[in-house]
Specification:
- It is a single chain.
- By secondary structure, the chain is of the alpha/beta class.
- The mean pLDDT is 93.
- The chain contains nine helices and 18 strands.
- α1 crosses α9, α3 packs across α4 and α3 crosses α8.
- The radius of gyration is 20 Å and the shape is globular.
- The protein has a domain of 136 residues: NAD(P)-binding Rossmann-like Domain (Rossmann fold, 3-Layer(aba) Sandwich).
- It starts with 6 loop residues before the first strand and ends with a strand.
Length: 338
């Protein structure tokens, strides 16, 4: 019986040419300042997919993936943290941000690589990474928040300084970050438009409060957007690629284009004269510090935002969930349930 308490099951990535394997592994051993969370739900992010195919920096084998998680604290490593035991929590997956709120330190890392992550029955995290789970959300919804909602909150409000009444364009509206960007901007009183490669996803975004959208597969998608909206104050983009070259054409003077991903490639050649003459900004961001995480949670709770969950798999079915992410068919988050 003692032996059984020292092991758990987890989805383990053993190499780039093998799927995740659900297997027994040692249960984490706590150090002072640590907490052990029994995972009730964990959500996928695009980084999990890139890691499984070997296209992410700093990959090590074996490793347990998963940045997003929600669960119950079962153990702590310090008496000062005993108040967390038994509490329902979600986890801030970003460690070691540093003292400057404008950018992360060289020590910054994300749960799920290099540290073992949430695709497991238990995960070890720093007690400082714990936040109370919003009571109105179920486990699957709460687990969807951490990485994607933090990233889009910082992009919209810290980097782009988005205000009520701003016209906001969200590219790739079906992704986890895309759906959160729509929800957060709508809640903030913005006029939101989207792009997507799917008419169904555009309609789904409109149900979340977006005014309209266009299919980026159309050659004249930028012209369509101009006719619909007249120009944008804020653009949230996680794709880059060749299509990014048209985004300055749909900007209002002084617009902010915030980027935090590159699923479609790198920055294409841009007409710099359009950027400086119209006072446009291209702003990079990723994740956020613990203050950003707390502010995101406060905003989500204030506006009773409910994350969009596309499909729920069993925790043991992480390999199937990653496979679904490969073709980007989802609208919202893909979640694992314990």
């Amino acid at each position: 019986m003692t032996f059984l308490l020292l092991i758990m099951k987890a989805n383990v990535l053993e190499s780039a040419d093998k799927p995740l394997v659900w297997k027994e592994v040692p249960k984490p051993v706590l150090q002072p300042g640590d907490a052990l969370v029994q995972i009730k739900a964990a959500a996928l992010n695009r980084r999990d997919y890139w890691i499984t195919i070997g296209k992410y920096a700093g990959i090590k084998y074996p490793t347990i993936l998963g940045s997003d998680g929600a669960g119950i604290v079962t153990e702590v490593g310090s008496d000062a943290d005993k108040h967390w035991i038994g509490q329902e929590v979600i986890i801030n997956p970003g460690y070691g941000w540093g003292d400057n709120p404008n950018f992360q330190s060289d020590d910054f890392k994300i749960l799920g690589l290099p540290e073992d992550g949430t695709f497991a029955e238990y995960v070890k995290v720093g007690a400082g990474q714990l936040h109370p789970k919003p009571t109105y959300l179920n486990w699957e919804q709460a687990a969807s928040l951490p990485l994607a909602a933090l990233t889009t909150y910082r992009a919209l409000f810290v980097k782009a300084n988005t205000k009520p009444g701003d016209k906001v364009l969200v590219t790739g509206a079906g992704s986890g970050t895309g759906t959160f960007a729509v929800q957060l901007a709508v809640a903030a009183g913005c006029k939101v438009y989207v792009t997507s490669g799917s008419a169904d996803k555009i309609e789904a975004a409109k149900k979340l409060g977006a005014i309209d959208g266009v299919n980026y597969k159309d050659e004249d998608w930028a012209e369509q957007l101009t006719k619909l909206a007249g120009g944008f104050d804020v653009i949230i983009d996680s794709a880059l690629g060749e299509g990014f070259a048209k985004l300055p054409d749909v900007c209002n003077p002084g617009a902010r284009m915030v980027i935090f991903g590159g699923t479609a490639g790198n920055l294409p050649p841009l007409n710099g004269r359009k950027l400086f003459w119209r006072q446009l900004q291209i702003i990079g961001t990723m994740m956020g510090n613990n203050d950003d995480f707390k502010a995101m949670l406060d905003f989500v709770i204030e506006h009773k935002i409910v994350p969009v969950v596309d499909e729920v798999f069993l925790l043991s079915e992480a390999a199937k969930a990653v496979q679904k992410m490969e073709n980007s068919s989802q609208f919202g988050k893909i979640v694992l349930k314990a």
